[in-house]
Amino acid sequence: MADVFISYASEDREMAQKLAHAIGATGRSVWWDRKIIAGQTFDQVIENELDTARSVVVLWSKHSIASEWVKNEAAVASERSVLVPALIESVKLPLEFRRKQTADLIGWDGDSTHSGFTALCDGISAAIGSAPQPEQIMHQKQKLPWNRRVAFIAVAAIIVVLGIVTYSIVLWQTSTPTSATQEPGAIANAPPESKNLPNTITDPADLVVGTYYGNVISDSKGSSLSDVTLTVTKLDKRTVRITSDYPRMGTVDVPLTRIGNKIFNGSGNTVLILDLSQHPPRLDYNPYGEVAYAGSKQ
Fold first, then answer.
1. Is 203 or 90 the better-scoring residue by pLDDT?
2. Which domain holds residue 106?
3. What domain count does the chain have?
4. Domain edge (last residue) among 142, 159, 184
């Protein structure tokens, strides 16, 4: 973990080297990308040094204000409250960094008594005094954003429920001589609650097809979303195709099985549970464990 990480555009390498030597002469440890050892992965080394440096000096010039790399490094440093900016050319800084006090190193020739260099050293000392400890840095890196944690928890819970439902289906099918979904006339042998359904509809696909309106509860790569439409079309009596106006859901073909008043996905890792006892029927759907959706049939 270095005291100072220097961020700069490649065109300003000579200035960065001069500044690294001057700061090092004050007793501070300095890291800049000349120190990458052969065999090390470039971006991983920079990311590690940037995340652990006690202060980050950014050299602003006409080249660095146009560099996404430098601006990203400055943003990370700002989030950690360890940013120490320095102006090496007369330029207009990116908007998000204009309110930060900036050391003036325009025309600096390496003089350690230069007012701009002195101001920069003072800024480094202040940043080092407020820098988080290494264990805090690791905790921050490992902690997922709140909405991502909720999404992953929701997906994990749905996967567990799917496992329980699948096991229950297998157990019921192996212990029941005649399934209510095997033949059209088998509805008479179905569980009592299913007898409330129309005897004329026996194919699971016919019960599922239609349009559903509801909400994306969680997305492993996004957030929740209201007013999402699902369209279910019939491929055969036990298979449907599901499309949505939410692009992340894509198009999925789902095989179906029915137990009483509920219809489930018969195989695969896509969750589908249609509760026919609800009025209107409620659909819980999660394609490939990625996007959790709940809606009602219209």
1. 90
2. 4-142
3. 2
4. 142
